[in-house]
Amino acid sequence: MTQPAIQEQEINLHQFLRILRRRYPYLIAIMLVIVLLAGVRSFRAIPLYKGSTLLIFEKKNNAPVDFATITQDGANESLATQEKIITSRKVIARVLDAINAEKLPQQEKKFLQDSGFKLSNFIKSIKKAVGFPEKKIVPDPIQRFRRKIAITSLRSTNLMQIQVTDPDPEKAALYANTLARIYIEYNLEDRRAASGNAFTWLSEQVAVLKAKVQKSEMDLLKYKQEESLTSLEKRQNTVDDKITELNENLSALVLDRMEKMAILQEIRGMADKLHKIDSIPEIMENSQIKLLKEEYSRLEIEFARISTKFKKNHPERIRLSTQLSHIKKRITAEAGKVVKDLEIGIHILQKKEETLAQSLDSYKKQARRIAEQAIEYGVLKREAESNKQMYKVLLERLKETDIGSSIIANNIRIVDLAKIPQRPFTPNIRRDMMLAGILGLFLGGGVCFLIEYFDNTIKGRDDLELLLGVDFIGAVPEKKHSLTLGGPIDKIVSRGHHETMSLLEFYRENHLLKTLMVTSTVAGEGKTTTAAGLALIYARAGKKVLLVDADIFKPRLCKVLGCPERPGLFDYFYKDTLPENLIQQTDEENLFILPCGLIPSNPTEIISSQKMRELLNSLGNDFDLLLIDSAPVTASSGISILASHLDGVALIIQAHSTNYHQVISVLKGLKKVRANVVGGILTRTNKKDGYGYGYGYGEGRKRQQLEISEELTS
After folding, report:
1. Which of 409, 447, 573, 690 has its CA at a distance of 20 to 30 angstroms from the CA of residue 390?
2. Which one-letter DSSP state was computed for residue 165?
3. Distance CA 456, CA 659 (A)
4. Which helix (H) or strand (E) holds 451?
5. Is the pLDDT of residue 234 over 80?
6. For this UniProt entry, what's an example GO CC term (predicted)?
């Protein structure tokens, strides 16, 4: 047995067509049902006519005043907003009043309320039949009329199409034109109302601003009076000048004081150095000190002169020394007076500095106060001027609004009036039937593929080879007439048997195949007739063939070929009869049969015995081919044991009937005993199957491939 060849299969057109060909009754039935339902609905539907009116929206405002900036009406210029306005209850109510639509004809009411089959109507009919109380709903004429309206905005334009449907073509055109006219009137009224609202709002704002102007001017005047702000700028300049003057004077005083303090410090440092005292201008400017300094210098010269003549204790030297000391003390005393005067002067300068600093601080406070007053005054002044400006602008706009409200223009007009339609737009029977056919085709095809997805039976050669990994060796088509037991043997032969023999011969060219078991998964798959047909074809081809009926549960080979059932195979085991005495010659020259005979109580043991194998081996020497018609593999374990000692096993599988899980179970059993499965033969195939050659593999078949691969390798 070959290994399962699990490969990814691409879905192609031929595979689709084969699936549809096999399942076409479902496709045709679904398509016919959908087309029939569509036809019934189309023929029962009330013909509807459509009246169309074309409007244009002009974004430019023809009025001299743009009210959109005041009323925000520009937002309503969007076509989406206008669609909502057209279908509003207020507009439709005016339309109904204009055409007296509350008294619609009964036919039109039926169109508005019920349109063909509805689930809700079906439920209502059931409730009515069982006596369930029904709530009476009063129809809303506005809602009924709204269902008739369809509004379309033409892309990249300011055009809008209003469409109204009605069973009466004249009314359809009338309703569309009336709706457009009422909507234009409503839009004009709305714009005028917006203009009136703008005028009222502007009047209120003008009054409010007038009061604000008066209040701001009064606040400004009151502030000037309270703060005595006659000439704020002049006061500011005066204070600034005074601050500058005080700063200059204060700086001069500080400089003078610092100079005097420096002199004082210098004098104190030279109090005992008379020879340097003349370097201080303030000291030398003192007349008394100047005279004393001159006298001191003269005596000093005189003392130096007599010091050369007289000794230290000479009276003249003592006298001059005493005078010099006296003058020095007087100079020191006079210098002390100068220092005292400097200290007094410094103190006076400090007092003046403090006075000037206080005055400067006072003027700075005045400057800050003036600045604060200037800021407050500026705020009040700007507020008054701003209120005046706004008041002026709104007053001007109020005058313009008063003038423009009387000449406001509409920005919507009719481009094309609706004409009476000549033919209904629905039902479109040709279109509906075509769409129903297409829908039925797709839906029916989907159902076919869905059924194919869940179908896990073996249907053809692809299933056999790709799903199960079993070689395909033939297909036997289904007979239109039933096989008559014991009738002419030619009835069991078909073209499929010839093809099967050809494939078997191709196999026999490369392998030894003298004993071949023909078995199946379950009973009723056609293994007996297939074995008989193959034997007959081989016999007519000049091969000496022996048919062995080894079906231990339901032997039918003699009934098919019309020969005696006894003696047979099992007589060889119990009566010691020679094999050649049990073999029967059929009407065909080269075809022989070994019937089953009387089935004993232990057929399984006999089938799987060594003696059975020896019998078949000996018979194989006398014939070109032994075909053993056995019971289904699942019926007895002895069948698998016998198969393991034969040259090959041909597995009979009934197309569209045998589940691939059953076949897997059989293949696993044969694999365990190392039986040689030559291949599979499909029976009862039909023309739709193409004798099993080629089947579509969708996702369902791929899924089956994976499942089978796992089961076979487990």
Report:
1. 409
2. E
3. 6
4. helix 429-454
5. no
6. plasma membrane
Measure CA of the first residue to CA of the last residue in the chain; give whole Å.
Answer: 16
Spatial CB neighbours of 483, under 8 Å, sequence gap ≥ 6: 491, 492, 529, 560
C-alpha span between 529 and 496 (Å, rounded): 12
**Which residues lie closer than 8 Å to 427 by C-beta, 6 or more apart?**
41, 42, 43, 45, 47
Strands 591-594 and 584-585: antiparallel
Give the C-alpha distances (Å, rounded to integers) separating 582 from 485, 585, 617: 22, 10, 16
In the block, which residue shows the tokens 């089959």?
Answer: 117
* Percent of the chain's residues with pLDDT above 90: 3
Measured CA distances, 651 to 82, 468, 493, 645, 661 (Å): 78, 12, 18, 16, 14
363 three-class SS:
helix
Show the DSSP H helices in 114-157 as ranges: 119-129, 141-146
Greater pLDDT, 710 or 599:
599
**64-to-393, 409, 413 alpha-carbon distances in Å:** 16, 10, 19
Q: Taking each helix axis from N to C terminus, what angle separates 24-44 and 13-22, rounded to the nearest 10 degrees?
A: 80
Give the closest residue to 479 by CA, choosing from 519, 522, 530: 530
Return the amino acid letter for 93.
Answer: A
Contact 160, 151 (CB under 8 A): yes
**Model confidence over 384-405: pLDDT tens digits?**
777 778 878 777 776 776 665 5
Alpha helices by DSSP H, listed for 270-286, are: 274-277, 281-284
Q: Which amino acid is at 495?
A: R
422 phi, psi to nearest 5 deg: -90, -25
User: 């029977």: which residue's tokens?
Assistant: 429
Count CA atoms within 13 Å of residue 20 on its CB side. 15
Whether 51 and 177 have beta carbons less than 8 Å apart is answered as yes
Q: In Å, how far from its chain's centre is CA 621?
A: 77
**Which residues in 647-696 belong to E strands, given as ranges?**
648-654, 677-685
Is 194:209 a contact under the CB 8 Å cutoff?
A: no
Other beta carbons less than 10 A from residue 688's beta carbon: 15
The mean per-residue pLDDT over the stretch 292-314 comes to 75
Helix (H, G, I), strand (E, B) or coil at 134: coil
Cα dihedral 652→657→660→664 (10° resolution): -40
652-680: pLDDT as tens digits = 888 888 877 888 888 888 888 888 888 88
Buried b (16+ CB within 10 A) or exposed e, 646-675: bbbbbbbbbbbbbebebbbebbebbeeeeb
**449: nearest Cα among 33, 35, 30:** 30
**Gap between the Cα atoms of 499 and 501, Å rounded:** 5
Does the global pTM surpass 0.70?
Answer: no
User: Nearest-CA neighbor of 533 among 456, 572, 479?
Assistant: 479
Q: Which residue has the tokens 């001299």?
A: 64
Which residues on adjacent β-strands are paired with residue 161? 54, 152
Query: Do the beta carbons of residue 639 and residue 652 sit within 8 Å?
Result: no
429, 454, 674 from 512: Cα distances, Å:
69, 40, 16
Neighbours of 261 (CB within 10 A): 16
Report the distance separating Cα 213 and Cα 222, nearest Å: 14
Residue the block writes with tokens 């039925």: 440
In total, the chain counts a number of residues equal to: 714
Q: Is the pLDDT of residue 647 over 70?
A: yes
Element (H, E) at 549: strand 545-550
Going edge to edge, which strands form the sheet with 584-585? 472-477, 677-685, 648-654, 515-520, 625-630, 545-550, 591-594, 584-585
Question: In this structure, what are the phi and psi dihedrals at residue 630, rounded to the nearest 5 degrees?
Answer: -105, 170
Helix (H) / strand (E) element for 592: namely strand 591-594
User: What is the rounded distance in angstroms from the CA atom of residue 703 to the CA atom of residue 467?
Assistant: 10
